């Protein structure tokens, strides 16, 4: 069964360095077109179903702004 | 929430580091190492000096910490260890803090093989004060004090500390996260002076002038430019590669 993951982004800690966007081997993240109230173009895990849980984004985020968690007992979606 | 977050003082977040600064990755590596070793927070003391790197443990690690004057962290740590030999004492500092102004403390702590762990967040320059060159700045680098390229050769700090008598010496970069965590765990677990040279990224100063200001591209550069000590060829060092591994 395919493992599934939940990705949480803390937009109050993120400084928009985009390490996560570029390091992700599955291109899970998108960058918003408009700036947030903090003046950053925020990152969203737009293709979360493609995540393989490698933790590259979480481990290399200097601001602890990403958390990747495996969803236990995930039901196979077809 | 991941368990290593219990070692982080999130009440001070977002951190004071620039966007994409590698020091935040070293902060996570230290927190993860402490968590995986299941250290008792009440018996751990962090000691740091001055510089962006000095901020890694103080205020961001949730344990007792002493934020000392520039270069003197190892001297204060020696005092803590003498008073409380049962404590785990961990110094975190920069290449400027530990290898220039504090260089003498470093080599003599290694010579005496004092039972402390020392983590050098090495970004090849003085980040906090505007990117001046340090004793680890590679020859030829452009810094705010070597505008046409540095004419001096750097110290190989890992080899220096090893030859002075340290029990454990390793060098990894922020691009080698699992290895970095592992080497910090080994350093803390080893008796005697343990030293981890953690090559960091300062996109704001060193990166902008020498590699790239893009935080990811800088990390990727460190990965591509490193050679493990086990696979070293005679030309690797002379070609300016970063030698990683245990020394
Ligand atoms: C006695 C003394 N001399 C000089 C300074 C100015 N100063 C502050 S931080 C620093 C260098 C920091 O470089 P490094 O240790 O590499 O840390 P980084 O900021 O690069 O992480 C210097 C020279 C000082 N604070 N105190
Ligand atoms: S865990 Fe890996 S695959 Fe999933 S989003 Fe992060 S970098 Fe991409
Ligand atoms: S000046 Fe350099 S070392 Fe200091 S916080 Fe900024 S990027 Fe990091
Ligand atoms: Mg430095």
Structure explained in plain terms:
The complex is a heterodimer of chains A (78) and B (247). Chain A is of the alpha+beta class and 78 residues long. Chain A has one domain (5-70): Alpha-Beta Plaits (2-Layer Sandwich). Helices cover 13% and strands 18% of the residues of chain A. Chain A contains two helices and four strands. The longest helix of chain A has 5 residues, at 19-23. Chain A is elongated. The model of chain A has no long low-confidence stretch (mean pLDDT 94). With 247 residues, chain B is of the alpha/beta class. Chain B has nine helices and ten strands. The radius of gyration of chain B is 17 Å and the shape is globular. The mean pLDDT of chain B is 97. In chain B, a hairpin with a 5-residue loop joins β5 (125-126) and β6. Chain B has an eight-stranded mixed beta sheet with strand order 2-1-3-4-8-7-10-9, sandwiched between helices. Chain B has a single domain, classed as Rossmann fold. Chain B has helices spanning 23-36, 73-83, 95-101, 103-112, 157-164, 177-189, 203-210, 215-224, 234-238; strands spanning 44-48, 64-67, 88-94, 117-122, 125-126, 132-133, 168-173, 194-199, 226-228, 242-246. In chain B, α1 (23-36) packs across α6 and α3 (95-101) packs across α4 (103-112). The interface between A and B is medium-sized, with 18 and 27 residues. Residues 7, 23-26, 28, 51-57, 68 of chain A line the site of one iron/sulfur cluster.
Poorly predicted sequence stretches spanning 5 or more consecutive residues of chain B: none
Q: Considering residues with a beta carbon less than 8 A from a beta carbon on another chain, report the largest interface and each chain's count.
A: A-B, 18 and 27 residues
Helix content of chain B: 25-40%
CATH topology-level fold name of chain A: Alpha-Beta Plaits
The gyration radius over C-alpha positions of chain A equals: 13 Å
Number of domains of chain B: 1
Mean pLDDT of chain B: 97
Number of helices of chain B: 9
Strand percentage of chain A lies at 15-25%
Oligomer: heterodimer
Large-scale geometry of chain B: globular
Strand portion of chain B: 15-25%
Count helical runs of chain A: 2
